[in-house]
Amino acid sequence: MYTMQSWTCICLIICSMQSVCHCCDWIRHHYGHLSSEYLSLLDQMGGDITKQNAPVFFPTSLYRHIDDAEFEDKVRFLKDTIYQIINLFDGNMKSVTWDKKNLDDFLNILERQLENLNSCVSPAMKPERRLKRYFKKLNKNVLRKMVSLVSYGNVFNTCNQMNIN
After folding, report:
1. Does residue 35 lie within any of the structural domains?
2. Which one in 11, 40, 92, 109 has a CA-CA gap of 20 to 30 Å to 17?
3. Burial environment of residue 31 by CB neighbours within 10 A (0 to 12, 13 to 18, 19 or more)
4. Which GO terms describe its biological process (predicted)?
5. What distance, in Å, lies between the first and last C-alpha atoms of the chain?
């Protein structure tokens, strides 16, 4: 009886370790490459956007805090950030004059990263409230008030500041 429970326990531990190892391998070998791709797309699309600062300050303290966090917390933070960026671009993009293919490629890369990062963290963990609040303010105070090239330019400037790689 105990032998069966022990083997079940060992099997579960090994399976969960493989999942974490797969995640670590993906981050080590693929995440940086994809990040370089989307940063290159940002450069291509954002050539003449704006030098105006966003009316919502960048959450520098959140990023400093996450530097000292555990690996899984860092991965969750990355996942949450990418998820929020994708949501920002989910709305009305008709007034933006960027190359549609580059914009689609940018979003596809972020979605690939999000999908892979989702497999790296526990689904039970809640997103960072301050990060969510930052993106909500950014959406409300920048994008919803001024759906224009300048407002999306502010978002791209924010993405470049974050340099999520």
Report:
1. yes
2. 109
3. buried
4. defense response to virus; immune response
5. 48
How much is the pTM? 0.67
pLDDT digits (tens, 9 = 90+) for 121-155: 777 667 778 888 888 887 777 666 554 545 555 56
Output the CA angle 119-16-35, nearest 5 degrees. Answer: 30
The single-letter code of the amino acid at 51 is K
- Contact at 8 Å (CB) between 121 and 115? no
Q: How many structural domains compose the chain? A: 1
Token pair of 148, please?
A: 């224009």
Residue 16 lies in a domain: no
Residue 51 near residue 109 (C-beta atoms within 8 A): no
- The boundaries of the domain holding residue 88 are 30-162
Nearest to 74 by CA among 130, 33, 121: 121
